[in-house]
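re: the backbone from monday

yeah here it is again, tokenized this time
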């Protein structure tokens, strides 16, 4: 297109790519919510390409390229706009057809409350199949037979994904019970608001048709762009560690381990990850073979001399980059616990299950904030959960990078609870 006018194809390509990426993240261009209308997509396209067009023409002055034809840039801009708009609408059309014809990509929902707004919402669920919601049941709070426990049992037994509550019909105690239940059972909770003040924390406000909906918790990693950024960061860092460190360190660790304790170089253990699904977490073996899986304590005689060193420096955690590449874990996230410990914590620690809304990590905000290693008191696990929930609700790529740097610094310095 710019054969006679553009002097540096590489510079132009890099410029366009960076500009497009930044704009897409800023405008949330690739995020698609189920309840978005055509007008929202059109507005998104207009906002994206209006700014993109202005910055595209700025290339001429910024990089001093007066020879570039303005007409050729206009043709390029028009072609890109038409192509991306076509594929965006095609994707939305195919996704809607997939939901309406094949019943795929759906979420099971229940509604708690019986009034005009809940009836309108149910009509939307049942009438707009392209949204991808399957309405399962309405619970009438004003009925004498209404029991929250029956409601909770139905939600668990029928694998319900989202719960919509009419705030006008629920008491504060009932709302608190529902919030605790959804947090501890990995369910998405949304509110149909009235004029009450329900919670002091920031809520997310959307419309399904003409029905206003409040979401109790927004998780940044649910957004496709953020997922892509985090996964790209995970894969890049994992490949660097595997190629540059584990490729030569693993044979060396194997030889050192064999001197004290014959057996495999790797140790694997069942842990709970995203959505509480189990996976095998890998470590360098730091204990004698055939030891029990109880939590390690200070001065534990099961730990070998080599094991004590690699635990102190956190080297034993490095094989978890294999878990990251497999997609079971992330570089940064809530630390995964042993399955039997989780089963205990679920009943003892409120909102413990919220940690499983995202992938577990090799390191996490709780760990670099002083809550790593052995859980000696209830305060340790409670604070760990608080930091984990803060991380989940406030994730950013910069926060991940900061946690990685602090983890490396702490490993070099050595930590009191690294045993």
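seq for it, each position gets an aa:
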């Amino acid at each position: 297109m710019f054969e006679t006018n553009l002097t540096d194809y590489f510079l132009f390509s890099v410029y366009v790519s960076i500009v497009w990426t930044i704009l897409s993240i800023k405008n949330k261009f690739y995020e698609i919510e189920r309840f978005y209308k055509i007008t929202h997509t059109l507005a998104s396209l207009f906002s994206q390409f209006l700014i993109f067009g202005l910055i595209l023409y700025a290339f001429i002055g910024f990089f001093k390229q007066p020879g570039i034809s303005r007409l050729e840039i206009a043709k390029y801009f028009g072609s890109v706009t038409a192509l991306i708009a076509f594929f965006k609408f095609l994707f939305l059309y195919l996704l809607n057809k997939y939901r309406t014809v094949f019943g795929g990509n759906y979420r099971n929902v229940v509604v708690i409350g019986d009034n005009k707004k809940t009836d309108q919402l149910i009509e939307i669920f049942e009438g707009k199949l392209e949204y991808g919601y399957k309405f399962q049941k309405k619970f009438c709070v004003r009925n004498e037979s209404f029991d929250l426990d029956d409601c909770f049992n139905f939600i668990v037994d029928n694998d319900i994904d989202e719960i919509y509550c009419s705030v006008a019909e629920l008491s504060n105690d009932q709302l608190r019970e529902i919030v605790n239940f959804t947090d501890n059972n990995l369910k998405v909770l949304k509110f149909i608001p009235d004029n009450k003040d329900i919670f002091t924390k920031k809520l997310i406000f959307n419309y399904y048709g003409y029905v206003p909906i409040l979401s109790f918790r927004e998780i940044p990693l649910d957004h496709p762009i953020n997922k892509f950024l985090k996964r790209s960061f995970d894969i890049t860092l994992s490949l660097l560690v595997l190629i540059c460190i584990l490729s030569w360190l693993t044979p060396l660790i194997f030889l050192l381990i064999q001197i004290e304790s014959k057996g495999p170089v790797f140790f694997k253990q069942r842990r709970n990850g995203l959505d509480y699904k189990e996976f095998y977490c890998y470590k360098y073996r730091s204990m004698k073979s055939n030891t029990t899986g109880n939590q390690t304590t200070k001065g534990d005689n099961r730990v070998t001399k080599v094991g004590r060193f690699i635990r102190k420096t956190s080297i034993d955690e490095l094989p978890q980059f294999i878990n990251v590449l497999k997609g079971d874990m992330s570089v940064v996230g809530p630390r995964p616990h042993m399955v039997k410990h989780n089963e205990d914590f679920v009943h003892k620690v409120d909102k413990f299950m919220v940690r499983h809304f995202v992938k577990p990590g090799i390191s996490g905000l709780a760990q670099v904030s002083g809550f790593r290693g052995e859980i000696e008191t209830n305060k340790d696990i409670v604070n760990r959960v608080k930091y984990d929930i803060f991380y989940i609700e406030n994730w950013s790529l910069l926060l991940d990078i900061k946690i990685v740097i602090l983890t490396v610094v702490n490993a070099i310095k050595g930590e009191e609870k690294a045993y």
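The mean pLDDT is 84. The first helix runs from residue 9 to 27.
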